[in-house]
Design brief:
The chain is α+β, with helices and mostly antiparallel strands and 555 residues long. It is 28% helix and 17% strand. β4 and β5 form a beta hairpin. The longest helix has 24 residues. It is globular.
Length: 555
Amino acid sequence: MLSRFYLTILLFFVFACSFKDPEKLNPNTFSADVIIYGGNSAAIIAAVQVKKMGKSVLVVSPDKHLGGLSSGGLGYTDTGDKSVIGGLARDFYSRVYSHYQQDSAWKWQNSEEYGNKGQGTPAIDGDARTMWIFEPHVAEQIFEDYVEEFKIEVFREEWLDRDSGVSMINGEITEIRTLSGKLFEGKIFIDATYEGDLMASSGVSYHIGRESNEVYGEKWNGVQVGVFQHRHYFKDSISAYKTPGDSSSGLVAEVTGIPPGMNGTADNRLQAYNYRMCLSKHPENRAPFEKPSEYDPARYELLARVYEAGWNETFDKFDPIPNLKTDTNNHGPFSTDYIGKNYTYPEASYEERKALLEEHTNYQKGLMYFLQNDPSVPENVREEMAQWGLAKDEFIDNGNWPHQIYVREARRMIGDYVMTEHEVLGDREVPKPIGMGSYSLDSHNVQRFVTPGGYVQNEGDIGVHPKNPYSISYGTLIPKKTECKNLLVPVCVSSSHTAFGSIRMEPVFMILGQSAAAAAVLAINSNSSVQDLDYTELKEVLLNEKQVLNLEGRL
């Protein structure tokens, strides 16, 4: 009888323990101190920092490939002042340098032929050099190396249930659920996505589009008709109509008949997206530009008219990266930027986003085929284009096409502190700095419209250079305390449209990802909200990690 009694107690104890253990109750539940949603450069760098500080972390990535834009074609890095890029961001570029010191890295070109492009000065500790220009697969491998080296668990192709996948209690996220049914529990959450999906699903305030200049007392926000600060506008009088000069013939393709709006006023339009293509001119590593199934040369009529007017800058942004490849970006009045076709992207469903990405892909692939084959393109351009194709050894599981579109801007949090052009341009002191930026206030074109004279013109292309590198406030990473107490947002940061145009560079996202991760760990250690974190402690950690917080701390 006694043994049966103890056996009953033991069975009850086992049952009770398994009932309390959610992983035994639900094998699709996973827990860690910090949950990071996203798989881009900011996400992986943030995960590394969490592990360095001794906490557990899970990366929940909607993407299969890690690194975002840094491994998705943007290899000709927009750095600004390299001396303010420290911490793990600098470590990433040091690893790029180390890779290209190997003879095996140079398959299609001699290193001597490529030269010293993109190579920086020694880092803080002496001999760790940097290289800022690289091939996409090299960047992706470095992110994979981080994952292996720091034993980071990554859940790939896990998409947040944006409708009901965020559970909150007393203003704190307790768990998130993905469309596959997996649950991820954590103490602190980091939204490192380009879109800010976790932030939005958590009820945090955000903005999409351009604010009016009146909101933050700015100069370069809102509509900017007639402001041309790059070469991405129509310098000549190009008719906006199918039959030049005849408005009754209808608008030529890729032009909107909607008025652009008054200068300085707000709108919900976004700067254009494109794919940063990796092209090759090596005959053995060159995939031809195929004719898209929905190809229509009429949609590129504006480019034909630009050529007819004498434009000759086709190859100005075929920026060279190692091994006879390029990071090819938008350039000129009509190029790879699909202007005006991304306005719905931030709030669109996953299926709607997929359709938008397909539209962008078809447009850009059609453009490349047009440049190589259409008789309206000057013969010398077609001959040069014939030497180029997609790099066969890049994006090999996606038809050599980049797996990440350039989301230059989507949602932007309205958080504890809002960075504006005043801080970026050095006119206002920045409280609680956690990193630095230095790039210009940079916005690509937002719309293409018809002028009162019947000509076509672009609008929204801004490029205003700050006098010096500027600090970025910790307040830009955190929501208002009344909205969420345990979320950090290092990509869709709290900033105006103009300020974000400078902040939105990949090295800065890495910097902010590391700083957000350090703050997450310290908040856990002190059992505080991210808003109540002791900044003095955070500053000490960041300086020890060789982050650059202000001009005095530059490398």
